[in-house]
Amino acid sequence: MTHRSIHHAALLANPWNLPANASAHGPALDHHLLLNLWIALALLTLAHLILLIGILVRRRDAGPAPSAVWRIEYLPLAALAILFAALTVRAERLWADARYTGADPAALQVEVTGMQFAWYFHYPGSDATFGTTAPQFVAPGEGNPVGIDPTDPHSPDDFVTSELVLPANREVDLRLRAQDVIHGFSIPEMRLKQNAIPGQTVHIHFTPTIPGTYAILCTQLCGTGHFRMNANLRVLSPADFITWLASKQKAATP
Ligand SMILES: [Cu+2]
After folding, report:
1. Structural domains in the chain (count)
2. Alpha-carbon separation of residue 207 from 191, 195, 204, 231 (angstroms)
């Protein structure tokens, strides 16, 4: 059974639950989502009660005096506008925490490149500096899918993988890029979703907390092969990550 079918089996067994959360910022997002849903349910119930009362009262009455319109129409409208504005501001702040506030300088750096129809993960290697990339060096058939410039002194220790491997409980700063069209980088269990846009480098940062294998999806309909554009995120214990990194860096050493 692949991790994707496990993911789908879990959804079928538990269709009312969110995917398991495995990131540090996830609980706050889940809490806000559920708060929104409970408020929407309460307002729906309230609206139907008011509708029912209105129908019953109007059978006996000609309706409220024009002076009551403020009290029964505009004031609730203003209260709802304030409520939804507050929920929106809170949601925007939660998202901006992952997207716009800078990552910790000690965060692990990984460059993510989306292309039709695969994700590639570029690690800067032991010098912690990415070799520059340019479109003229892109050669997937020769093992250089993201176009690392071989003449850059920062390049030789860099390595590129087709699965994202990260240590648990360390912040990671991803740089999202796209080679051709807009792709949607999404990991449901990490509560991450962000477009990768050609010509831009988009930073998102997060901290995975639970070791395991998670599906990385593309959430933009990016072409005929979109359905197969997926990869794995493997979260390892810090010790296992060091072993994995050492094996990759040994392979990358020229
Ligand atoms: Cu895509």
Report:
1. 2
2. 11, 19, 11, 19
